[in-house]
Amino acid sequence: VIFSILFFFPLAVFGETVIQKGDKLNILVIGSGQPIQTYRVSQDGYILIAEIGKIPAAGKTVDTLEKILQKKYVVRYPNSKVAVTITPAVEAGRTIYVLGEVRNPGVFNIKTSISIVKAIAMAGGLTPKADARRIRVIHKDSPQSGEVFNWELFNKGKSSPIMVNPEDVVLVETRKFSHIFILGEVNTPGRYVIPHGISFMEALSLAGGLKGRMSPDATIIRAKDGKVLTIANIRQKLTSKEVLALIINPGDSLVISLTSQNSITIMGAVNAPGRYSIKGDFVDLLGALSLAGGTSQGAGQATIIRKDGSIQNIDLKNLSSIQNTKELPRVGAGDSVMVNRSIPQLIYVLGRVKSPGAFPINGPVSIHQALAMAGDITKWGSRNGLKILRANGKLETFDLEEALSSGNLKSIPRMQNGDTLYVP
C-alpha cells in the first residue's frame, strides 16, 4: 500500500500535516477500481464527494481524514483501503519567488519574512554559474530599486543577510565572466574566461607557458583605454619586478610574438586553429580563415588584433554581402585573429509548465511562443497571474486568460533575452 501511495503521490504531503482551506486532496480508494480523485477544500472547510456526501476536512490531519473516509467507503467497498495526500494551497500574499541560478527555481510559501540565505536554501542553493556577489532582492513595495546581496562577503562575515518579505523576488543572476585573449608564441593560445584581473604569470600559465626556447616580445593591449604596452625579450624578464607587477584585466589582449616571423595566428571557432605563414605583407580575412580550415559551427564575430595593438571586430555574417574582395578586412603579418562563438539569447519559462527550463530565441517572442517552447501550461497551472521578471529586474504581472477572453491581443507582452516567465 505504501508503495502505491508513493508511486501515485511522489510530491504530496502525508501524515500529520493539517489540512487547510484551499488545499487539494488526492484520494485513492484502493480496492474500489476507481482512479485517483482530487477535491479542493472549500472555504467553509468541506469536501464534497458524490458517493459519500459532504465531509469536514479543514483543521484535520491527513491521518484523521483517512480514518473518517475509511469508515464511509468500507460500507460500499469491503476490504478497501483509503489513502489521502495533500497538495498545499499557495496562500495569497505569502509567497516569494526565487529565480535564476538556483537548483530549483520557483515559488515558495513563507509565513513571515525570512533571510535571503534561507530563501536560497528553499530553492536548493546556488548553481555553479551563480554570480554570488550580486544576488538581487526585488521588494514588492519598491520594485524599481531593490537590494543587492553579496554571498561571498557574507561567508567571510563581512555583511549581513537581506530580509525577504512576502511577494518579493530573489533573482540570482548568471555570473558574467569576461575574457582575455592570449595569442602567439604560447603553447595553448586562445580566449580565456576570467572573473577578475590576474597576474601576467597567471595569464601565461593559462596558455601553457611560452613556446619554444626563443625570447619573444610581449604586447598587452588594454581594453579600458586602448593603450599598448610592449616588453621586449620577455623570457629574460619573467622574474623582474616590472613583469611580476603586471595585471591582465578582463577584456585585455596579450600577444606573444617573434617580430621576425611573417605569419598570422588564427584561434577560436575555426577547424584548424594555429599559426600560419603568409606570402606578402597581408591576406584578406576570408583568406586567413581558409588557412585555418574555415569557421566551425557557432562562429559569430571575428576579432583582429593588430601587431600595433589596435583591435577590429567584424560580424562574420556581413562578410558574404561584400562584393569587392578589396573591401574585405586585411590581416597583416604579426596580426592575430580570434573567432568567437555567438552567444545565444535565452528566456526562462518556469513554474507549472510541462517542460520548464531555458530556451534559445532569435528575437522577441510572445508569451504564447514562450509557453509553447515549455510544452504549455499543465492542468494545475493558471493563465492568470503570470509573472514576468524582466532582465533589468522589473517584475510584471499579466492575466493572459483575461486578454484572450476580451480579444485584447495587443496587450499581450513579449519576452526578450534574459526575461523569465513564471506560471503560477
Question: How does this model look, in words?
Answer:
- This protein is an alpha+beta fold and 424 residues long.
- The protein folds into five domains: 18-87, wza like domain (wza like fold, 2-Layer Sandwich), CATH 3.30.1950.10; 95-174, Outer membrane lipoprotein wza fold like (Roll), CATH 3.10.560.10; 181-257, Roll (Outer membrane lipoprotein wza fold like), CATH 3.10.560.10; 263-341, Outer membrane lipoprotein wza fold like; 346-422, Outer membrane lipoprotein wza domain like (Outer membrane lipoprotein wza fold like, Roll), CATH 3.10.560.10.
- The protein contains nine helices and 33 strands.
- It has a five-stranded mixed sheet. It has a five-stranded mixed sheet with strand order 14-13-19-16-17, covered by helices on one side.
